[in-house]
Amino acid sequence: MKGIILAGGGGTRLRPLTGTLSKQLLPVYNKPMIYYPLAMLMLGGIREIQVISSPQHIPLFRRVLGDGSRLGLEITYAEQAEPQGIAQALTIGAGHIGDSPVALILGDNIFHGPGFSSVLQGSIRHLDGCVLFGYPVSDPRRYGVGEIDEDGLLLSLEEKPERPRSNLAVTGLYLYDNDVVDIAKNIRPSARGELEITDVNKVYLEQRRARLIELGHGFAWLDMGTHDSLLQASQYVQLLEQRQGVRIACIEEIALRMGFIDAEAVYRLGRELGASGYGAYLMEVATHAGAA
């Protein structure tokens, strides 16, 4: 499976923070925002990943992530000249996807919860059509909302409904088989001129090949589109890391756990970070894993 991180957009709700910097490079506690969606794709076992962003921001992402080889990944980049909807990522990334299935994740989403890597890997392994992830929210009228049957089959999908049929908001992580490339190419732009991801998902719904997995108790889904939500996400990560002594979305540790790189490589990466607490954590992890 290939991976795509959509890290475009103007970040208008976060200005002036995003006057010169991409939203997805802003810090979320102790690491750049893009580490969090990248970590999700890595936990799914995905190693070929494309980052889609605006032309002026791609050089910054290259400086942060490089070509991915230090993590045992292959990271490429593609330009989104103008943001025209989430589904545009599937047309921009068509060459990257090739004849593979794809996981598309938004660059400003955090997912965290026990066993999520197993859920994600199982969904990828048994993918037939599309898999979405739903999160219960108090005001579903603000979101795309999915209704499912007892087996998780998607029954309806509405964007910001006045009378929601459920409280399950569709999150920014989408798994698709290779049919999605043709589906995305053939959907019509909305009245705003955008390629809506809901329209892509509705094609799978009509084919009865769309499933939605509910992320229930113990899971957190955070969408960092405003100053308040960005601060809340940082506080959430800080609290868990300080109380539990682990790092959320530590991409070097995940690369080690997934077998993409060895302990010696993790130790070198930690040492390169100097006296930072993040670097010290990496060296400790590597030492426990057998680094000399």
Automatic annotation (TrEMBL):
PANTHER family xref list: GLUCOSE-1-PHOSPHATE THYMIDYLYLTRANSFERASE (PTHR43532), GLUCOSE-1-PHOSPHATE THYMIDYLYLTRANSFERASE 1 (PTHR43532:SF1)
InterPro entries: G1P_thy_trans_s, NTP_transferase_dom, Nucleotide-diphossugar_trans
Superkingdom: Bacteria
GO molecular function, one term: glucose-1-phosphate thymidylyltransferase activity
SUPFAM superfamilies the UniProt entry points to: Nucleotide-diphospho-sugar transferases
Gene3D superfamilies, sorted: Spore Coat Polysaccharide Biosynthesis Protein SpsA, Chain A
Top EC group: transferase
Annotated Nucleotidyl transferase domain residues: 2-237
Family per similarity comment: Belongs to the glucose-1-phosphate thymidylyltransferase family.
Protein name listed in UniProt: Glucose-1-phosphate thymidylyltransferase
Source taxonomy: Bacteria, Bacillati, Actinomycetota, Actinomycetes, Kitasatosporales
Cofactor section: Mg(2+)
Keyword Metal-binding: yes
Keyword Amino-acid biosynthesis: no
UniProt function note: Catalyzes the formation of dTDP-glucose, from dTTP and glucose 1-phosphate, as well as its pyrophosphorolysis.
Organism: Streptomyces albireticuli
Reaction(s) catalysed (UniProt annotation): dTTP + alpha-D-glucose 1-phosphate + H(+) = dTDP-alpha-D-glucose + diphosphate
GO terms, biological process: hexose metabolic process; polysaccharide biosynthetic process
One Pfam assignment: NTP_transferase
Gene that this sequence comes from: rfbA
Keywords (A to Z) from UniProt: Magnesium, Metal-binding, Nucleotidyltransferase, Transferase
EC number from the UniProt entry: 2.7.7.24
